[in-house]
Amino acid sequence: MTAGRNKVVSGPEAATLTREAQARGEVVVHCHGCFDIVHPGHVRHLQQAAKLGDRLVVTVTGDALMGKGSDRPLIPEELRAENLAALDCVSWVAVSPHATARELLLALRPDVYVKGREYQHNHDPRFEEEKVAVESYGGRVVFTSGDVVFSSTALVAALEASEDPVRIALEPLIRHHRLDPEGLDGIVAEFRGRRVLVVGETIIDTYVICDQPVVAGEGPLMTLRPLEYRSFDGGAAIIARHLAALGARPTLLTPLPADSRADALRLRLEVEGVEVHSPQIDGPLIEKQRYMVGTNKVMKVDLAPPMTLDARDQQRAIDQARALAAGSEAMIVADFGLGFLTGPMLDTLCGTVRNVVDFMAGDVSGHRSNLLSMRDMDLLCPSEAEIRGALHDYEEGLSAVVWRLLEQTRSRSALVTLGHEGLIAFDPQAGASGPDEWAGRMRADHVPSLVPYAVDQLGCGDALLAAATLARLVGASLPAAAVLGSLAAATEARKLGNAVVGAGDLRRGIRRLREARLTFDPEPAATRSSRHDQLSHSHSPSS
Q1: Does 226 sit behind a cis peptide bond, omega within 30 degrees of 0 on the bond before it?
Q2: What is the pLDDT, as a whole number, of residue 451?
Q3: Quick one: pLDDT at residue 228?
Q4: Interaxial angle between packed helices 503-515 and 478-493, expressed in degrees from 0 to 180 and rounded to the nearest 10
Q5: Residue 203: closest CA among 287, 304, 302, 306
Q6: Spatial contact of 61 and 132, defined as CB atoms under 8 Å apart
Q7: What is the distance between the alpha carbons of residues 267 and 24, in angstroms, rounded to a whole number?
Q8: Calpha distance 467→285 (Å, rounded)
Q9: How many CB atoms lie within 10 A of CB 474?
Q10: Are 475 and 455 contacting, i.e. CB atoms less than 8 angstroms apart?
Q11: Which phi-psi region, left, alpha or beta, contains residue 515 (left: φ > 0; alpha: ψ -120 to 50)?
C-alpha cells in the first residue's frame, strides 16, 4: 500500500518525471479517465497501454469535474488514485484539475496517449480536443483492442437497481424529513420504561399445517389431513408483547375465561413483563384457525362466539380502564370486532381516558369493529379498506377519505396501511378545517413496503401500531414513527405467525439504513408537489 501511495504525485511532479524518463530514452504512455469503479475492462486497458512503452502515467478526473450525476463519484479522487497506483503496470498517478486531459497532455507531452476502442469513432468533442493536443507536439494516439468492454456508469446503474430495497424505498422520505439513523436509534432508546395501557380482545391464532389435499370420494370436497398445530398469541395480547419487547412497561386489559388455557396465556404474558387485568367472560378463549398447505392458507375457521357484556359489565370495564390509565402515559385501543368494545362503549372509554393519558392510539380489525367510535385519538392505524368500509366511500381519493375520518373522529393523525404498497402517513396541518381543506392542509408521506416478499402478513398491523405509538409518545415526528412502524411490520412479515418484534429488531433495521449511506438533502419542491397530486387522486377503485 505504501509503494502504491508513493506513486500518487501532483500534476507538475508527473510532468517532471515524464521529462526525466524521456531524457533516459524511455517511452512514456498516458491514460486518462474517471476510474470511479476499477473493473476488469480498466485493468485490461491499462495493461495493454503499458505494453506500448516503458512508463505508464495515469491521470484521473477530479471529484468536482466528474459530470456523471449528483451522486458520482462513488469513490473520492484520493482513493481512486491509490487504487490505480496499486496496479503493477502503472508508474505514476495524478489527479487532474481540468475537465479534460488537454491541459495535462500539453504539460506532460507523453509519447503515446491511449484511449479505449469506443472513442475511435464516437467523435466526442472532449476527446477531439485531446487528440489535437497530442498531435500538436508529434505524439501518437492509440486505441486499445477493446476485447473486454465495461462501463463504470452501467455498473453503477446495475448496482443501484439491485441494492438494498430499504434504501430504494426510504431514500426520498429520509432526505426530505432528515431522518438520520442515529436519530432513529435515539428514539428507540427512549422506549424503555414507557407505561402503556392496551385495551382489547385477545385471540389465539392457530396454524394447522396440512398434508397435500385430495378430493373426497363422496363429492367435490377438499380433504385436509392436519400434520401439526402451531398456536400464537394474537389480538391485544401480541400488541402488549411487542411493547414489552420494545422496552416499554405494558398493562393489558383484556377479557379472559376462567380456564387453564387462559391461565397459561396470563403466565406467558407476565413472564415477559406484561401486567394483565382480565374481566372474566363465559365460554372458551377466542381462537382463529388457519389451515395451510405448503406456504398457502387454504381455509380459515373462526372459533369465536360473539362476546356479550351487559351495561354493568361494560361500565365496570370502563372504570377499570380509567384506573389503569391513571398509571400510564398512553393507551392503545384495539377493537377486533368480537363484542368486547361496542360503539357506545368506545365513545365512553375514549372520552373518559382522554384527559388521563398523554397519548391515545387505536386500530381495528374485522367487519364488526367500530372505527368511527374511536374519538379524540392522537393516532389511528387502520387499513384503506377499513376506512372506506366505515365511511361507505369507495370512490373518493384516499386523502379526502382520510380527512373525513379524522374530522368525524376528531383524531389528529393516521397511518393508513395499503398492504404490499406499504403505508401513507397523514398529518393535518394546524388551522385546517372544513370538508375541502385536506388538499392544502394535510401532509401525506408514503412509506413503501420494506419487505420484498411477505412470508405472512398476519400481525403486521399490530407490530406497526406498537412501534409507531411508542415513537409518537416519546416525541418523534409522524414520518419517523411511520418508518419505525414499517420496520417493525417488515420484521413481522418475514415470519410465520405472530412473532414478537423487539428493540433489537428495530435497531437491525436502522443499521441497514446506516449501511445504505442514505443522504439527507431536502426533496425538491416539484417532487413533493407531484407526489401530493398523485395521493389526491389515487387509491380509489376508479383510479
Answers
A1: no
A2: 83
A3: 93
A4: 110
A5: 287
A6: no
A7: 88
A8: 27
A9: 20
A10: no
A11: alpha
pLDDT digits (tens, 9 = 90+) for 205-215: 999 999 988 87
How far does Cα 157 stand from its chain's mean position? 21
What is the predicted pLDDT for the residue at 7? Answer: 93
DSSP state of 435: T
Tell me what percent of the residues of the chain surpass a pLDDT of 90.
59
Per-residue confidence (pLDDT) for residue 72, from 0 to 100: 52
- Please check whether residue 181 is in contact with residue 189, taking contact to mean a CB–CB distance below 8 angstroms: no
Residue 420 C-alpha cell reads as: 404490499
275-277 and 249-253 as β-strands: parallel, antiparallel, unpaired?
parallel
Per the CB < 8 A criterion, the answer to whether 385 and 419 are in contact is no
C-alpha cell at 372: 368511527
Maximum alpha-carbon separation in the chain? 106
Q: Tell the burial category of 23 from Cβ atoms under 10 Å away from its Cβ (0-12, 13-18, 19+).
A: exposed
Nearest Cα to Cα of residue 304 among 322, 283, 318, 290 = 283
Domains and CATH numbers, the chain: 2-161 (3.40.50.620), 165-537 (3.40.1190.20)
Question: 171: buried, middle or exposed (CB in 10 Å: 19+, 13-18, 0-12)?
Answer: middle
Secondary structure class of 517 (helix, strand, coil):
coil
Query: Which residues are CB-neighbours of 22 under 8 A, at least 6 positions away?
Result: 28, 111
Buried b (16+ CB within 10 A) or exposed e, 75-98: bebeebbbbbbebeebbbbbbbee
Distance from C-alpha of 267 to C-alpha of 269, rounded to nearest angstrom: 5
- Average pLDDT per consecutive 10 residues, the chain (543 residues; last block may be shorter): 72 95 97 83 88 96 66 73 92 90 93 86 82 93 65 52 58 80 94 98 95 80 90 97 98 95 96 95 91 90 84 93 96 94 93 96 89 96 95 89 95 94 86 50 86 87 98 96 96 93 94 60 40 41 33
pLDDT at 157: 53
Tens of pLDDT, residue by residue over 116-174, are 877 777 677 888 899 999 999 999 999 886 544 445 555 555 555 555 555 666 777 78
Tell me how far apart the alpha carbons of residues 3 and 224 are, in angstroms, rounded to a whole number.
71
Q: 460-473 vs 236-245: helix axis angle to the nearest 10?
A: 50
Rounded to the nearest 10 degrees, what angle do helices 260-271 and 236-245 cross at? 20
Specify the amino acid at residue 510: I
For every residue of 324-385, DSSP letters joined together read: HHTT-SEEEEEE-SSSSS-HHHHHHHHHHHTTTSSEEEEEE-STT--GGG--S-SEE--BHH
Q: Are 220 and 276 in contact (CB under 8 A)?
A: no
Which residue is associated with the grid cell 512514456? 28
Q: How many Å apart are CA 467 and CA 234, to the nearest integer?
A: 16
